[in-house]
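Two folds, back to back.
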Amino acid sequence: MTRNDVTELVVFNRMKKGITWASLAEACGKSVPWTTSALLGQHQMSPEQATTAGKMLDLPDDAVMLLQHVPYKGNEEWTTRLADDGVLTEKSAWHPWT
């Protein structure tokens, strides 16, 4: 299971069960924007937050574990697109101070 798989599962199960982002945020004790971002892969959740969300969304243990890990910041699609456009291969993109 990958982090992208978890995101897909979160989106699908939330819609299937009719759970709102606000109810997930309230249960996790965080704001709606933060909780939404965390569940979509942009923030690390505490074990308690991940377990709470996992129970509400019927997520498997592996998904709950991945919610607790520091996410890779950067969308793979955008990273690939930037590399294809030559942006990530330009020396100035990696070393703007040189």
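---
second:
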Amino acid sequence: MRSPLHNEKYAFLLEELQELRRRKGWNQRALAAELGIGQDLVSRAESGKRRLDVFELALWCQACGTTLEKFVKRLDKRIRSNQLQGLLRPDDAEDNH
């Protein structure tokens, strides 16, 4: 069983995925067509029933007109603005690798 903290931070990731697609003005079917996958895969990913690996996430970002780096920065900002303890170590913010 996953911890509540993990579920909460993963919910932020799912929200960012959905917002990314919506900012592009697409429904799930349009994104699926751009990615060359079925709409059911987009739906399952956005609902948390299917996890994306980092390469799939990068393709998702590219299809929506952004980069993985920008997506992660938005996610980090959302996490920090919600002051969720234990999600990121303080020195992670300064890591520019």
